[in-house]
Design a protein that fits this description.
Rossmann fold; five-stranded parallel beta sheet; mainly alpha; 48 helices; single chain; three-stranded antiparallel beta sheet
Length: 931
């Protein structure tokens, strides 16, 4: 079985095996943390050494045999002791059995004699060479370590491979020094944590967001990855967020550290207390929680360190891995944990510990009616509502449960309930947030208005846009302070933008700006951003630029703390910058939003991910765009927001089309249409335009026309929608044969884009005119217009669209008889498609180039079809598929990423005209029957 993420290390092992098989000594040091895969690597080395003809002598030390002389070698030398005929074999056998040759650590017996006899056994082996593989050497007994050092310093005359594995923090110093003296014969391998690509390969059947969660919880440790893959999603989230686990799944974790149960009772208590105290726990806190003297805690920590469970750093205790700490926490038992957390809270409060840490322990230990603990939890919840909303909701909810419903909380109960609802909503628990907000409909002012405003936000996130508008409008009839009224108008402006109601967006945004003082820059920035949004989609590009610049200035002047309650509305500002062609400003705003959102469990996250996915699509980073859209889908699902899930899928259509083809994009779009989502007209329009592109790419011009047709008043007048709509109509009509109408729409698209001075839209309009010219067989004009369009799209920093224009230019050149120009244009398009990961577009280019008239291939040869059209790498991969290898096995063999293999394979399918590996193998065989 291929070891994921270890290609370089396996190559080093192969080199060591080859050295030994070639007649020389090879020494290998393999180390890493517990669970990192040392034993798996040693087994793989065993397999490779045996395949090379070496006699494998493999042994493994255990912690229970550290006082047994030569215990590590008892199994390792078994292949050499199958009979006792030789004097060396008999003597070694007696030593391993404990009969006289080495009676223990204090013996004065001549050790050199037994070491020499073991060396003689290795020399007498009836094979070309011997591989001595010793695992877990950190547990080895002293005689075994000395023997290993001897064999490295005075290796057998017969070719030998000596490999040792141990934990990084517990190196057998003598053996390590001996190997260091081996010079070029030594190979040092340190096993590092696995990364995202490795986890994708290891757990390909799991959704991407779940793989990301497993990676975060495991830290990239292979053992923990496998364990965590069996846990539910809520358990994984609890591990990542340092929360208590569901007891139904705790056994999966406690099985990792069963050796804790074998420890002395005081050492166990140190482990449990450190687990309760948390990561980087001070010695004095652990001692207080464990109810032990500090010196006994130090002794226990040393024992836990020796077993590879814990590190001691600057008088603080830290478990080697968060998963081990979580397992030790579970082993402590529920009753002991409650009292231990209570002791931790007492100690930290007395010593002015961090507010959030005190709240953590208070939440886990407080009893009903405990007003002091409730106050701690409320204080922490109010402080972290925007910074860590999901955690704040836990603390506030716990405080409210501790005290009876009628408890006044010092007259603050309505305010606490409002903040609880806000934390629930911002943290993604939209349904529960709505329930709490309904309870506040009869509260006094200003809580009632604040609750109604946030209730509208939650309704909007859930897709209930009309309900949200009604809630906000109803509140405007009350007498409100200017700031409270301004917040309502900002929310109504946001709803107007989602409804494509530019007039309402502008009206409410302007009213909010007149109500706001200079000391409210964050809300003013939100109003300005929405004002820019409305202007852009209303067709006033100059006004949109002005408002966007003003909004950006306000955001830049606002602190993260002040911006945090309004961070979601950075999304429209970044979107406006993107549509205005300023991708640098869009990226900067999204980066700022990421800094502001300190917790991944925020209601702002899905929307910000959606806008980031659109930006990555525009920049041609298609894999990143798809991944971001998937993250947004996962975040929306966690929140229960079907609306934001639909927005995420809408923005994924374009990168899906370009990477996997029309079928995938159409499937997603059809699902959106079936659910009548997104309900926001603005985001539904994004989906419509992308679906029209996909239908056109699928060769369905009439369907494309049906999507973008309709009364002009039903579509926004702004260039970001109007230009692509006219471009699509021009291309579809030209494809259908109505060249006059196509020319009119192409010219209108160019006029709109030119008047707005938008480079991206100008490039697309030029593409439309080039396409119409090509369909009219005006090939020289088509090529010139396509080249100009490509120049505009390059200036807009949109590499996929630029490549599409180069692709069109290549076709026009080829059909116009200018083969040399066609080769250049096709080559430019190919390079960009490759760089962007536009796999499907690359396959289309290959077909077009093969079918184009004239000598347009890179080598100026006859256009090839079928298997003959495959590149050397594509043919190599196809042959490996035909041999039965999986994509991951191919990736490991060719030292490629699995994603790269999949991209090559997608092009192979396209060139061969097949849809499955089986069909590909059959087609490949028929094209090359002699192979």
């Amino acid at each position: 079985m291929t070891l994921v993420g270890r290609a370089t290390q396996l190559e080093a092992l192969d080199a060591a095996v080859a050295t030994a098989a070639g007649g020389r000594l090879a020494a290998v040091v393999l180390h890493g943390e517990p669970g990192i895969g040392k034993t798996s690597m040693m087994r793989e080395l065993e397999r490779r050494a045996a395949a090379a003809g070496l006699l494998v002598c493999a042994g493994q030390a255990t912690e229970f045999e550290q006082d047994v002389p030569f215990a590590t070698y008892a199994e390792a030398l078994r292949p050499l002791l199958h009979d006792g005929a030789t004097e060396e074999a008999a003597a070694v056998r007696r030593a391993l059995d404990g009969h006289g040759l080495y009676a223990g650590p204090g013996s004065s017996v001549d050790r050199a004699r037994i070491y020499s006899r073991v060396r003689g056994l290795l020399d007498a082996a009836h094979t070309p060479g011997v591989a001595l593989l010793l695992d877990d050497l950190h547990w080895a007994d002293e005689p075994s370590l000395e023997l290993t050092e001897y064999l490295i310093r005075k290796p057998p005359r017969r070719p030998a491979l000596v490999a040792v594995a141990f934990r990084t923090g517990q190196p057998p110093s003598g053996v390590v020094k001996a190997i260091a003296h081996a010079g070029p014969a030594a190979t040092h391998i340190s096993l590092s944590h696995l990364g995202p690509d490795d986890v994708d390969a290891l757990l390909p059947e799991l959704p991407r967001h779940r793989r990301a969660l497993i990676l975060r919880a495991s830290g990239g440790n292979p053992l923990y990855l496998q364990v965590l893959s069996r846990l539910r999603g809520d358990t994984l989230a609890a591990l990542v967020d340092n929360h208590d686990l569901d007891t139904s799944e705790s056994q999966v974790l406690t099985g990792l550290v069963t050796d804790i149960a074998d420890l002395d009772e005081r050492v166990r208590r140190v482990a449990y207390a450190a687990a309760v105290a948390g990561d980087h726990a001070p010695l004095d806190l652990v001692a207080y929680v464990a109810e032990l003297p500090v010196d006994e805690v130090i002794e226990g920590a040393d024992e836990l360190h020796r077993r590879g469970l814990m590190d001691v750093d600057a008088a603080q205790l830290r478990f080697r891995h968060p998963l081990v700490r979580a397992a030790a926490h579970e082993l402590a038992g529920p009753a002991w944990r409650v009292t231990a957390h209570a002791r931790a809270a007492v100690h930290l409060r007395a010593n002015h510990g961090p507010r959030q840490v005190v709240a953590h322990h208070a939440e886990r230990s407080a009893q009903p009616g405990d007003e002091a603990s409730a106050e701690i939890l409320i204080e922490a919840g109010l402080a972290f509502t925007y910074g860590a909303p999901a955690q704040a909701a836990r603390w506030l909810g716990a405080a409210l449960r501790l005290l009876p419903d009628g408890h006044p909380l010092g007259g603050r109960r309505p305010t606490v309930l409002l903040q609880y609802a806000r934390a629930l909503g911002l943290g993604g628990d939209l349904e529960r947030s709505q329930e709490v907000l309904r309870e506040l409909a009869r509260a006094g002012e200003p809580v009632r208005t604040e609750a109604a405003a946030f209730r509208a936000v939650v309704a909007r996130l859930l897709g209930h846009i009309d309900d949200a508008a009604a809630l906000l409008t109803a509140q405007l009839h009350a007498e409100l302070p200017p700031y409270a009224e301004a917040k309502l108008h900002v929310e109504l402006a946001a709803i107007g933008a989602l409804r494509e109601d530019g007039h309402a967006t502008a009206r409410h945004a302007e009213r909010a700006l007149t109500l706001l003082d200079a000391d409210r820059p964050a809300l003013a920035a939100a109003a300005r951003a929405l004002r820019a949004f409305g202007a852009l989609y209303g067709g006033d590009v100059a006004a949109a630029r002005g408002h966007a610049a003003a909004a950006t200035e306000l955001v830049d002047a606002t602190t993260n703390a002040a911006l945090r309650p309004h961070v979601e509305l950075i999304g429209p500002l970044a979107w406006v910058h993107l549509q205005l062609g300023d991708v640098v400003a869009a990226a900067r705003q999204l980066d700022r939003a990421a800094d502001v959102v300190e917790s991944g469990r925020s209601s702002a996250v899905p929307y910000l991910l959606v806008v980031r996915a659109a930006l990555e699509t525009r920049l041609g980073r298609l894999a990143a765009a798809v991944e971001l859209a998937e993250e947004a889908v996962a975040a929306a699902r966690r929140m229960g927001s079907v609306e934001m899930l639909a927005m995420a899928e809408a923005v994924s259509l374009r990168p899906l089309l370009w990477t996997t083809g029309p079928a995938s994009a159409i499937t997603v779009a059809d699902r959106l249409a079936a659910t009548e989502r997104p309900r926001s007209r603005m985001w539904w329009r994004v989906a419509q335009v992308s679906l029209a592109v996909a239908r056109m790419a699928a060769g369905e011009p009439e369907t494309c026309l049906g999507i973008v047709s309709g009364p002009e008043a039903a579509w926004p007048a702004g260039p970001p929608t109007a230009v692509p709509r006219d471009v699509l109509r021009a291309v579809a009509l030209a494809r259908s044969g109505d060249l006059d109408a196509a020319e009119r729409y192409a010219r209108r698209a160019g006029a709109l884009a030119g008047a707005a001075d938008l480079v991206y839209e100008t490039g697309w309009a030029g593409y439309a005119r080039a396409y119409v010219a090509a369909r009219a067989r005006r090939f020289d004009e088509a090529a010139a217009r396509a080249e100009t369009a490509a120049t505009h799209l390059a200036a807009a920093r949109t590499p996929v669209e630029e490549a599409l224009a180069r692709h069109l230019a290549g076709l026009a050149y080829a059909r116009g008889g200018r083969a040399a120009h066609a080769r250049v244009a096709f080559g430019q398009a190919e390079e960009a498609y490759e760089a962007c990961g536009a796999t499907w577009l690359r396959a289309v280019l290959d077909r077009d180039r093969a079918a184009a008239p004239g000598r347009v291939k890179r080598d100026a040869g006859t256009p090839a079809t079928g298997a003959a059209a495959l590149s050397a790498r594509e043919r190599e991969i196809a042959e490996l598929v035909r041999a039965g290898l999986t994509n991951q096995e191919i990736a490991s063999r060719l030292f490629l990423s699995r994603r790269t293999v999949e991209s090559h394979l997608s092009r192979v399918f396209a060139k061969l005209g097949v849809r499955s590996r089986t069909a590909m193998a059959g087609r490949f065989t028929s094209d090359f029957p002699d192979e």
